[in-house]
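Annotated sample (chain length 446).
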Amino acid sequence: MKRITAAGIGTPPMVDRVLKVGEEFVGLDLRAYPYRHESEAPAKVASLPPELRLVVFTGPVPYLLSQSEKHFGRDAFFVPFDSHALSHAVYRAREQGRDPARASIDLLDPRHVEETYLALQIPREKVMVIHYAQEIRSDRIAAWHRHLWEQGLTSCVLTCLRSVRDSLSNLGIPVFRLEPPIEAIRATLRLVEARGQTLRAEEGQLAVVLVEVDPPPSTEDVYEREHARLQAQAILVEGGRQMRAAVLHLGGFRFALYTSRGDLDEYTGCFRSFPLLGVLEERLGTNARAGVGLAPHAHDAQHEAERALELARREQGTSAYVCSGGEVMGPIGARRGLVPAGVVAAPGGLRIAQPGLFALARRAGVSAPTLRRVIQAWYASGGAGITSEELARTMGTTVRSAQRILRRLTACGLAEHIGHHREEARGRPRVIYRLRLAGWNAVEGV
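Output written by the structure step:
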């Protein structure tokens, strides 16, 4: 069985560590793409070969830096720095005679720091924390730690960044780097493997593309009309070669292309644009539209394509729609990206475009309908936070299923822990989650 290939991006020691744990996963083939500094992460992603659609970052910082540079059309995951990583760094600081109650800590959520210190029964009133923001560079973070140390306000530094550790160590400042535990790496790689299996199944789907071209206005003569049709067919044959598709003439100015979803994803950049329509429009001087159907079986894919083409006919000008399993994406322009076909209503001046919803669902490894229901449940809670128990009740599913969904959303950066809730004196507290939609292309102001 062919293994699932993924790229590991991070500092050399951390990439080696992730690859070492990855040896436990027989179906996973991890390839190393180390960098010297986290600022190199976006360039590493941009240089990846097209077949590497899965990326594992060794921490949240390179992941967020790469997201902001918009080099993506890939599914990305990062190994989180959790309370276990912080606890281990605190223990190492104590072993070396440093006082973690007077530490400066970077890039962790202050609430997570507070919860960890509370569990370790360490006073936290004098602990300094700087939360991650994309505009903050590592040299500024190092300068912040150094200033606190020189003012005598801290006893040690706990950092998530190797570059900060190296910079401060050279100055003689006691610094301890957080390292994610093996189990956090394993949990992330399980998500990567599951997502790879989903992608493989999707790529094997059949894609049917129905193309309809408006006859050029100056084709009243039968010979001119036939010449225009042959031009259109030649363009489609050339485009079909690029997407490895068989082309069939359906009569008049209607055609069908048959290929796999994987090949069509590659040609359209995961449906960011549909270049073939632009070529038809430019060379023939007329509008063209396409309906794309995706399904495991030819009959279902054909039905979805006809439904998508009907939607494209309602648009003015050149456009395409994609239908797959009840989900609709479009319209897609010849050169532009997705334009919202429909939205999920949300309070607070937000709306979730269906195409963006589809892309986010693929990134998280859940279905688009599932993600939509999670979003609706979160907004129904007032947007303050939601527990797995509350999500399970709203969605009509089990608590275990709700927990699994929330873990996947958290792993890909779409959700985060914001606290705990305890209804009774006994029993484990319930984790409260918040969705993180700001900054994603799927979220638009109304």
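Annotation: The longest strand covers residues 206-213.
Annotation: The domain at 4-80+182-201 is CATH 3.40.50.2300 (Rossmann fold).
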